[in-house]
Design brief:
The chain is built from two helices and eight strands, in the order H-E-E-E-E-E-E-E-E-H. By secondary structure, the chain is an alpha+beta fold. The radius of gyration is 28 Å and the shape is rod-shaped.
Length: about 120
């Protein structure tokens, strides 16, 4: 009887170690990688724009007739500096490169949302 008890105890310990070993393994699938290359990506007071026009022209001021300063293309993600509206009550957004109309962009509360939306853009 003592041999059976010892065998049962050894088997139980072996089984317990086996179960703990397999259940405690860390899976690579559960690793979350945070991209911290853009420090303002999740800042609550910073908005981001995703360009939705094939090509958009940055303007010197909030006017279709103003000088073109630069260009951007569909899928670019830009940090918004400010927002204002023109005489016709159309919203314009200011970026480092100049002004873009609201019709050329979609606005997001953080960069991560803009990056997710970029994946769904159609060419």
């Amino acid at each position: 009887m003592k041999i059976i008890n010892k065998l049962f105890l050894v088997f139980s310990i072996f089984f317990l170690i086996l179960v703990l070993n397999t259940s405690c393994k860390d899976s690579k699938k559960n690793v979350i990688i945070f991209d911290d290359s853009e420090p303002l990506a999740l800042a609550p007071d910073v908005q981001w724009a995703l360009v939705i026009d094939p090509y958009a022209a940055f303007r010197e001021s909030m006017d279709w007739e103003s000088e073109i300063k630069s260009y951007c293309k569909k899928g670019e993600i830009l940090q918004i500096i400010s927002r204002s509206f023109d005489d016709k009550k159309n919203y314009w957004y200011k970026f480092e490169q100049g002004w873009l109309p609201e019709s050329s962009i979609n606005v997001y509360s953080n960069r991560m949302k803009a990056q997710t939306a970029k994946k769904t853009l159609k060419d």
